[in-house]
Amino acid sequence: MKRISIKIMLTAGLLAFSIISCKKNLILTPNDQVTQQQVFSSPASITQAMAKVYGSFALTGNDGGSGAPDIAGIDEGSSDFFRQMWECQDLTTDEAVYTYSDPGVYDMQNTVWAATNQVIQGLYDRSLYQITLANNFLQQTTPALLASRGITGNDATTIGYYRAEARFLRAYQYWILMDVFGNPPFVTENTVLGSGLPPQIKRADLYAYVVSELKAIDPLMVKPMQNAYGRADEAAVWALLARVYLNAGVYTGTPDYNDAITYASKVIGAGYSLIPDFTQLMLADNNLNGGVPGGGIASQDEFIFTINYDGVKTQGYGGTQFLTHGSTGGSTEIPADFGVASGYSELRTKSNMIALFPTPPFTDGSHFPNNGNADTRAEFWYPGQTLAITSQATFSNGIAVTKFRNVTRTGAQGQSTTYSDIDMPIFRLPEMYLIYAEAVLRGGSTGDAGTALKYVNLVRTRAYGGSTAGNITAPELTLQFILDERGREFFWEGYRRTDLIRYGLFTSASYVWPFKGGVATGTGVADFRNLMPIPQSDLSANPNLIQNTGY
User: Fold this and answer.
1) In a 3-state reduction of DSSP, which class is residue 186?
2) pLDDT value at position 324?
3) Burial zone of 67 (CB within 10 Å; 0-12 exposed, 13-18 middle, 19+ buried)
4) φ, ψ for residue 292 (rounded to 5)?
């Protein structure tokens, strides 16, 4: 197939078409600025349309950071997919606290959100918007339509891969909706326009759809590590299946740890490897962490699927731009160390996360970025910050984070001091190692304890700079250890809420963090908050929808 890089596709596709959301028909009726015939008339224009399907993960509109938003009714700067997902997944937990009282943010970190919360509305709309794009692409690129437009041969084969990738991106967004909202509206490319408002799908039924869709496209995808960097391949399908199966008990009431082991093992056996230095994972040139220099095919050893950010070509105020600028700005920090002109003094972490790591030997900033900690994943900034959080509005309350830095491995600044070059991995190899281990510990019979321990210690050895000093023994490998290890490994990568729910700790009074439940010392909350509400605006517009219990 033709090897077309994501960043080239994004540049070509920025103005391919724009779909502006309307609450009543958000996932049914596109409002194209050009006709469907124009958009899907040739292989080149179809590639541009596919660029929009991918680009909506990294961009918020067609004019860069602001000016022509994809979605109406929300500040464009905060409407980026990963930013909205991160605020639902990490800001609601023990991992992060936000300084500014942006609409809806404090209610999220205080676990007191309602169905009118703007952050929740933003993620809901963004996921449905991206499903709309995928559905539209699939409707307009059927084999029959391609043939009618004279598109055959290798071009048709390439577009066939695009179609499988669009189905994967749609399945991923339906997983987001299943995980966060449980029971969202549901349509596919086969839904007839004008047939009425979208029906609601039950969580267990959506689980069955996501699993069946991923299995259906598995043989249609480009083989692992053979697609252009940033595009989904067969390993991305396996990784999502492993994640979905690990949480099957939450989604359906029936666990499926054997399938979690099976699909994690498929990814592990596909040829990926850990890069040697953890502190280089989230840098401006992290697309070059292994593989082919220059960002071509298989240019990443560890990342299975990424959202690609580019300081020139994908400008916006979400994703890794948000995480880099937001976590910088303390009184003793140097913005240039983070590749930014100035920090926003927004984001820092809580004592719960600091407690997961060994005590650092240096807390004066002299061993930036991880204070000489034996565990190199402890990328924190202590000077000028306090461990205790008595005021959410005070940036110095809470420890700053140094994980995301818009500089290269040589220390050179990224392309822009305003926007980010740091790609965001959606799936990394260590997740597959830890899924395997957790599924074995939870009773999965298709794996074995010795392999589980080996995989955990591969993650630990890399974390300790190649030393086995942090390795554990079989008696130490417990479910609690896996949860803590996931916290250390995937800190601020959008995992935590799902993990805590799977462990029964997200709402529980047995595990609290500052301002959980709106109390400074933390408190338990009602279990209905394991699901977020269907936004009130969509409930009002679509009588087919029933609100989640408790809201």
Assistant:
1) coil
2) 98
3) exposed
4) -90, 120
